[in-house]
């Protein structure tokens, strides 16, 4: 009887450990997928493009920047970021870190970074190339929809370093 009890305990322990490992492995996979979404967005901005970014957001995703409601991601691109990218010579992130929390079907991210924007010279307006350095933070909420992580909410803010 003792050996049957011992075997049963060992089997239950193996099942519980395997389940826990599988659950942890699945959460780690989700975390890496969320980080990949955020990296794809950051990489696009560094490449001064919005191409491929619409797939990262839901159509009704809300965007907030520097205390302002920008609307949906499409509105943000049309009225703010899209035109703005045309004035940049370069946009680079440094000292980047991301913290990700998974609480299915949602994920929450906080990104911290420095960024440097080199503005293009405007010969018509007579402005010279200018460099803007800022410290930024972004919080995003993603939702897993049909097995794919999508940004449903994004809020960024920054503080200029070279005023």
From TrEMBL:
UniProt xrefs under Pfam families: SnoaL_3
InterPro entries named among the record's database cross-references: NTF2-like_dom_sf, SnoaL-like
Gene3D superfamilies: 3.10.450.50
Top-level taxon of the source organism: Bacteria
Signal peptide coordinates: 1-22
Keywords: Lipoprotein, Signal
Residues annotated as domain SnoaL-like: 34-158
Keyword set includes Signal: yes
Name of this protein: Lipoprotein
Originating organism: Patiriisocius marinistellae
Classification lineage: Bacteria, Pseudomonadati, Bacteroidota, Flavobacteriia, Flavobacteriales
């Amino acid at each position: 009887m003792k050996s049957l009890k011992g075997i049963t305990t060992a089997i239950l322990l193996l099942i519980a450990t395997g389940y826990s490992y599988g659950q942890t492995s699945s959460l780690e996979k989700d975390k890496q997928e969320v980080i990949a979404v955020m990296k794809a967005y950051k990489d696009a901005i560094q490449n001064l493009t919005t191409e491929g970014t619409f797939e990262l957001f839901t159509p009704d995703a809300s965007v907030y920047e520097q205390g302002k409601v920008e609307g949906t991601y499409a509105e943000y691109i049309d009225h703010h970021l899209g035109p703005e990218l045309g004035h940049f010579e370069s946009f680079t992130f440094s000292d980047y870190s991301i913290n990700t929390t998974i609480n299915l079907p949602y994920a929450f991210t906080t990104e911290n970074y420095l960024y440097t924007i080199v503005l293009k010279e405007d010969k018509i307006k007579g402005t010279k190339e200018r460099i803007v350095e800022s410290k930024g933070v972004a919080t995003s909420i993603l939702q897993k929809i049909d097995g794919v992580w999508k940004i449903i909410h994004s809020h960024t803010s920054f503080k200029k370093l070279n005023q």
